[in-house]
Amino acid sequence: MTPAELSRTVLRSVRGAVDEKELDVPVPARIVVRPPRRAGCGDYASNVALQLAKEAGRPAREVAELLRRRLVGSAGIARVEVAGPGFLNFTLGDGAQAALVREVLTSGARYGEREPGAALVEGPVPEGARGVVVAEALGRIAAAAGAGRLTQPEQAPAATWELAGIVARLGDDEARWALLRPAARDAVRLPERPVQREGNPRFRVQYAYARTRALVRNAGDLGFTSEPGETGPGMAAATQDLTALLATYPATVEAAARLRAPDRMVRHLEATADAFVRWCEVCPPLPVGERKPLAVHRARLALAEATGTVLANGLRLLGISAPEYL
After folding, report:
1. Under DSSP, is residue 90 helix (H, G, I), strand (E, B) or coil?
2. 121-144 burial, b for 16+ CB within 10 Å, e for fewer?
3. Are 206 and 173 in contact (CB under 8 A)?
4. What DSSP character marks residue 193?
């Protein structure tokens, strides 16, 4: 079961409870599920019960327990628990990771895109070169999130000239990353010059993407291709960190569009790249030495490929290149 499928399953449980008069609330358009903040609390969590409790006029834990009873035994869900003030925690059945990787690879460049209908928060666009870059990125992000085309104020010619000067000094990718990375309330700090090393977050993201492509090429040289599956025991923490970031990429696209905050995309890509590098250290996708490729290597290669898809999609929305060689 993928996060999108889990979201639809929870939504059906809410709709069923309303149809059968167990709940008297408007049925939400969408249910958000995310990896829990604390380890050991299942694979995903939702605060839908807390959202519905006020409308229902009932305690959130009571609403959560009602939904839990409806969800127990659903295909793909191994366990449902109520936690804290009314969170629903889900432990998925076997194959959840493989299903997510398969969804990412099947969707390809469209992974993270939504059907039309997302709402946007109105707000000003920064002035100057930053405003030009933010407006361009938000246009692409909003379209991917299903929010349609954004109407942006026309930028003064001076802003375009300012951006051209920054690009001439730093290069297009470094200039855009530096202008998009700060949150709206934070000041922009431009580097003196672009640097191709680990301390540069833009470089880390592009390096991680290039590494995913190198793994695919190297696997081809060894005579095997990827196949979603189980990546092997003993790697749960690193794998869960990485797959959680892949799973929440669509929600990040939507939030970046809705809140007019492309910096959310930047931070998500940085976290994904760092998690991928850590994962590779403890979970090598390619066989070592003379060992023959096993099913676990094909599964790890698929996860690496899926990571590359997410990184490439995010970079494209930001207007930054995804080089296959670095």
Report:
1. strand
2. eeeebbebbbbbbbbbbbbbbbbb
3. yes
4. S
**Residue 229 identity (one-letter amino acid):** G
Single-letter amino acid code for the residue at 114: R
Q: In the numeric block, which tokens belong to residue 59?
A: 């305690």
- The runs of H, that is alpha helices, within the chain are 3-19, 48-56, 60-71, 96-107, 128-144, 157-170, 172-180, 201-222, 236-247, 249-258, 262-282, 295-318
DSSP annotation of 34 reads: B
Tokens of 240: 């869960």
Distance CA 105, CA 89 (A): 27
pLDDT digits 0-9 by tens, 230-288: 887 655 678 888 988 998 898 899 889 888 899 999 999 999 999 999 999 988 899 88
Write the DSSP symbol of residue 46.
E
* pLDDT attached to residue 235: 54
Hey, which of 117-121, 191-195, 273-277, 293-297 has the most confident mean pLDDT?
273-277
Residue 75: CB atoms within 10 A of its CB come to 8
Residue 62 CB: number of other CB atoms within 10 A?
Answer: 13
Cα 295 to chain centroid distance, Å, stands at 26
What is the spatial distance between Cα 60 and Cα 203, in angstroms, rounded to a whole number?
Answer: 45
